[in-house]
Design a protein that fits this description.
The chain is an alpha/beta fold. 37% of the residues lie in helices and 15% in strands. The protein is elongated.
């Protein structure tokens, strides 16, 4: 007799087989199978949990094996499966051979919730497991997977009675739990609250529609951060499959607070974040910010203040849409299909581009006094290799006049409607042809491979001439040329056009060249 459990390992984890052998000998419990301290401490929790639940704990020698033995097991989620295995070995209960059990056990016999339940259940379903036991406080999370057969006990005694009922009827008892009153009260602000910055707003709309990366830079107080934090309000909702995958990853990190995650995640870590905090890792590999931003946005405010090693390590995930973490036991892959938004000042002091103050005004608003070397060192963290992966580059300046918000400014709801239409166009386009690249299914224009760019970024004759001239005069790399075409395709989708024309290609070039007028660039030297 055995019980199945789950050990987090990368994105998918490992199904663990919990085996118990009770034999005559000096009373004691031995645990084999590369268990960490928390798992070994389960011996005392289980012993007390048995006694306080009214069960007699076996007084013989107990051997507990956690297979596979070469995978490290950590955490307290193995408490309940070990306890049930001991019960079955002692003849107290009868258990089916295809049962996964999750849960931590208190000394009182109560069952505590654990992280990663949705990830564990998803892995169990893929492995063909048919019945599941989860803590009562994780029942709402388990119910997110339709058609799942599970029981959610609050105590060890409840689970004992449920297994006896199953032995008689062949089915686990019905689950009764109260759904939480959790509501999505998150408010990201509205675009209409920011006066001016129409070009920055337009770039954010393009980024939301096509999944493109964006860099915005300018003096403090120009609305860089405020508009970036309004960005989730214009994004299209996740598809059902995407919502389940995002929720599963957040469950693995223990960051679910009720219900399915239907909004694209928006992660904004502090610039002091460690490399492991951003990329993932640790003694037991757990998702980092780029994985928690999967199908969403990673926003790095004051980007040059982040460690250079952190910024440079983003290049591979941006290209591969996943992060590979190598450990002694082998490489582990975590999904990281996110779009990146970087915000930066023009220089270390933040005053580059700000006007000198009028007489009698605040001297703290004076112009920049940073030396050229200081400015170069500041921007050097954003290497050319990283910037080459940023399709949209937007300079901003301080607004001339601040008036009462909302008057004459387009709101987030209106912009989101256009974004949703453009996203639907892309989903239909790529679904119809079942387009995939080396990384899997193509979701947005930003994911297009060179072959898909050639197939779907069709230019009018005049637009083709402009693009060829621009690529030569601006010295664009191959990746940069593809980036311009992807942006132009998204602009055309927002406008409901099948063919990329002059307006779309010129706007795409403008957003690529840090705001230079493309007409001036193209006419230079003529």
């Amino acid at each position: 007799m055995h019980v199945l459990a789950y050990a987090p390992l990368g994105a998918d984890g490992v199904i663990v087989r919990v085996e118990v052998d009770i034999r005559r000998g000096i009373p004691g419990i031995d645990i084999t199978g590369l268990a960490d301290g928390a798992v070994k401490e389960a011996r005392e929790r289980i012993r007390a949990g048995f006694r306080n639940s009214g069960f007699k704990f076996p007084s013989d020698r107990i051997l507990i094996n956690l297979a596979p033995a070469d995978v490290k097991k950590a955490g307290a989620s193995l408490d309940l499966p070990i306890a049930i295995s001991v019960m079955a070995a002692a003849g107290l209960v009868s258990i089916p051979g295809n049962l996964m059990v999750l849960g931590e056990l208190e000394l009182s016999g109560r069952v505590r919730p654990v992280r990663g339940v949705l990830a564990a259940l998803s892995a169990g379903l893929k492995a063909g497991i048919t019945e599941f036991i989860v803590p009562l406080q994780n029942a709402e999370e388990a119910a997110l997977l339709p058609g799942l057969s599970f029981f959610a006990p609050a105590t060890l005694a409840e689970l004992y009675h449920a297994l006896n009922v199953r032995a008689q009827t062949g089915e686990l008892p019905a689950v009764s739990f109260q759904k939480s009153s959790f509501k999505d009260n998150s408010f990201f602000g509205d675009f209409s609250e920011v006066k001016g910055q129409s070009r920055y707003k337009r770039a954010l709309e393009i980024a939301a529609a096509g999944g493109h990366n964006l860099l915005v830079f300018g003096p403090p107080g120009s609305g860089k951060t405020m508009l970036a934090r309004c960005f989730p309000g214009i994004m299209a909702p996740l598809s059902p499959d995407e919502a389940v995958e995002v929720t599963r990853l957040h469950s693995l990190a223990g960051q679910i607070s009720g219900g399915l995650i239907n909004r694209p995640p928006f992660r904004s870590p502090h610039h002091s974040a460690s490399t492991e905090g951003i990329l993932g890792g640790g003694r037991i590999v757990r998702p980092g910010e780029i994985t928690l931003a999967h199908f969403g946005t990673l926003f790095l405010d004051e980007a040059p203040e982040f460690r250079a090693s952190v910024l440079q390590s983003l290049r591979e995930p941006l290209e591969d849409r996943q992060i590979t973490i190598v450990r002694a036991e082998g490489p582990m892959k975590l999904p990281a299909n996110f779009q990146l938004i970087l915000a930066a000042n023009g220089c270390p002091c933040g005053r580059l581009g700000a006007d000198f103050p009028a007489q009698g005004s605040d001297p703290g608003l004076a112009g920049c006094f940073c030396s050229p070397d200081e400015i170069r060192r500041y921007w050097r963290k954003l290497s050319g290799a990283l910037l080459d992966r940023i399709e949209l580059r937007i300079p901003v300046s301080k607004p001339d006049v601040l008036t009462r918000g909302g008057e004459g400014e387009e709101g987030s709801d209106t912009i989101r409607e256009r974004v949703i239409r453009a996203v639907e166009v892309q989903r239909n386009r790529f679904t119809e042809y079942h387009h995939k690249n080396r990384l899997g299914v193509v979701r947005r224009n930003a994911d297009m491979s060179p072959a898909l760019i050639e197939a779907h970024c069709l230019l009018s004759k005049k637009a083709g001439e402009i693009f060829s001239l621009a690529s030569l005069r601006l010295g664009l790399s191959g990746r940069a040329c593809h980036g311009v075409l992807k942006i132009a395709r998204t602009i055309a989708d927002l406008g409901g056009k099948d063919i990329i024309d002059t307006h779309e290609i010129l706007e795409a070039i403008q957003h690529r060249r840090f705001g230079d007028d493309p007409y001036d660039i193209l006419s230079a030297g003529e």
